[in-house]
Structure formats: structure tokens, C-alpha cells
Design a protein that fits this description.
Elements lengths: L1 E7 L27 E6 L14 E11 L9 E9 L7 H4 L1 H9 L6 E5 L18 E3 L2 E3 L7 H45 L1
Parallel strand pairs: 1-2
Antiparallel strand pairs: 1-5, 2-3, 3-4, 6-7
Length: about 200
């Protein structure tokens, strides 16, 4: 699984419909080959966007890319699974300390990183193979082995699992409400017919 992680400086892209690139955020990076995206508020967001600082702001899994209707550089990306937290996201420091240390203290992800996590055991393949992951920053691709802690893999996968759970709970709650409404309507109709 290839996971794109990047530092966000502002809200609004992706939008609440899950359209990544609606305002051309991350440009051609959106065209990279990835299976999931984790957007994390940077250390110094734009003025007025301070509430997203160092928080997990959104997650998208299983992307679909289409030509941008606005003529932007990169494609418009939507996701089979998507959740947007923005300022309500979890602080990376409090919940994912290894990722926080790697990203914000050691500054190993200055802007963008693409992690290739091999299945079925992502942590077994980081013993120095250069193709296990690539860190990409400011248009520079580095393929040499890095001091890339196993904890980072685990935390990235934990973020995706947490997002999928939240997405699943939201869908289940929506379905339960719809089923309850349908059942209530059906039950009322039956009781009227039986009277």
C-alpha cells in the first residue's frame, strides 16, 4: 500500500465532498501513484488556518482520478473512503508520537512523503531494501534507505484503520437512521391498515 502524507497549510482542499484538488492544492503531486492520502496540518499553517496545526485533518482511501474541470495541473481526486476532520482532527503529538517526532521534530517530511508499505507484514520489509519506501520532498526523490523507524509504519496504518472505523461508524449510523425511519413509516402504515 502506498500512502501519501503531506503537510497542509490551509483548509478547503479537499472539500467536504472529498474532492482533492478542487482548488489545485498539491498540483501534480495528486497524480502520483498512491492508495491512500493522509493530510496533516503543518507547523506553520497559513494565517487564519492555525486551528489545523499538527493535526490529522483528513484521510482518503482508494482514489479515483479524473481530469480537473478547472484546467488545473493535476487531476481531481475522489476516494471510495473519505473523512474530513480539519480543525477537529487528532493532534499527531498526542496520538502518534513516532510520526510526530519523525515529521515535526526531526523534520524528515518537510512537505510531502510517499510511503510504500509492503503487504502482508509492512514492518518486515524495512531491513534496508531501497524500494521499500521512497521519501519525496520538494520535487526530490530519494530512494536510498533511511533511518525509518518501524513505529512510523505502524502509526500510519493505525491512522488509516482509525479513519476506516470512523467512516464505517458514520455509514452505519446513517444506515441505522434510514432503516429506523423506513421501519417506523412501514410500521405506522401497517398499524393504520390493521385498524
Amino acid at each position: 500500500m502506498k500512502i501519501l502524507v503531506y503537510r497542509r497549510t490551509h483548509r478547503g482542499d479537499p472539500n467536504s465532498k472529498g474532492e482533492f484538488g478542487c482548488h489545485n492544492c498539491m498540483g501534480l503531486v495528486r497524480n502520483w501513484n498512491y492508495d491512500a492520502v493522509i493530510g496533516i496540518g503543518g507547523k506553520k499553517p497559513d494565517r487564519g488556518e492555525e486551528e489545523i496545526k499538527e493535526k490529522i485533518t483528513w484521510v482518503g482511501i482508494f482514489p479515483t482520478k479524473t481530469a480537473s474541470p478547472h484546467g488545473f495541473k493535476g487531476p481531481l481526486v475522489t476516494f471510495k473512503k473519505f473523512i474530513l476532520w480539519d480543525e477537529k482532527g487528532l493532534l499527531v503529538k498526542d496520538y502518534y508520537p513516532a510520526l510526530y517526532e519523525y515529521m515535526f521534530v526531526r523534520n524528515k517530511i518537510p512537505r510531502t512523503a510517499l510511503f510504500n508499505i509492503a503487504a502482508p507484514n509492512p514492518c518486515a520489509s524495512i531491513s534496508g531494501a531501497a524500494d521499500t519506501y521512497a521519501v519525496i520532498s520538494d520535487n526530490t526523490i530519494c530512494s536510498a534507505p533511511f533511518d525509518f523507524p518501524e513505529d512510523i509504519y505502524k502509526e500510519l496504518l493505525a491512522i488509516l484503520a482509525m479513519a476506516e472505523k470512523k467512516i464505517g461508524n458514520r455509514i452505519s449510523a446513517t444506515n441505522a437512521t434510514q432503516n429506523h425511519t423506513a421501519c417506523s413509516t412501514s410500521c405506522k402504515n401497517k398499524s393504520k391498515g390493521d385498524a
